[in-house]
Amino acid sequence: MSLFEIILDSTPKWIVGYMTDTLHQGKGYMSEALQCVLEFAKHETEITRIEAGAVPDNTGSIRVLQKAGFKENGSQPVPIQGTLKEHTMFAVDIL
User: Fold this and answer.
1) Residue 20 DSSP class
2) Phi and psi (nearest 5°) for 26?
3) Among 5, 33, 34, 47, which one has the highest count of C-beta atoms within 10 angstroms of its own C-beta?
4) Rounded CA gap, 27 and 38, in Å?
5) 58 and 80 in contact (C-beta within 8 Å)?
6) Rounded distance, CA 93 to CA 95, Å?
7) What is the reported pTM?
8) Based on the number of CB atoms within 10 Å of its own CB, is 63 exposed (0-12), middle (13-18) or buried (19 or more)?
9) In sequence order, what are the residues at sequence separation of 6 or more whose Cβ sits closer than 8 angstroms to the Cβ of residue 72?
């Protein structure tokens, strides 16, 4: 799991990314890790928003984000290994 902090208009936010080996997919590890990130952000930081993206056909990743409370927020191309790939974008506000 990777976190990148960016600050726009004086508002800090994180962009989260994650990946797991195919042998470990579907076991809930990313859901559990993402919940830990959300709890940490809520109780230990000043972060107010976390964003993430997923390739539209990656239903597992989309399910992880939706289960964690992320809402779809449009789409945009994201560079992956030198190639732009369209991603569905998601965000969750930390209250």
Assistant:
1) -
2) 80, 10
3) 34
4) 19
5) no
6) 6
7) 0.86
8) middle
9) 88, 89, 90
At position 65, the amino acid (one-letter code) is: L
Query: Which of 62-66's residues contact partners 24+ apart within 8 Å by CB, and which partners?
Result: 62/88, 62/90, 64/18, 64/30, 64/31, 64/34, 65/34, 65/90, 66/90
Task: Determine the Cα angle at 58 with ends 7 and 65, to 5°.
Answer: 45
The residues, ordered by sequence, that sit 6+ positions from 41 with a Cβ below 8 Å of its Cβ are 14, 47, 50, 94
- What single-letter amino acid sits at 24? H
Distances (CA, A) of 38 to 14, 80, 85: 10, 25, 26
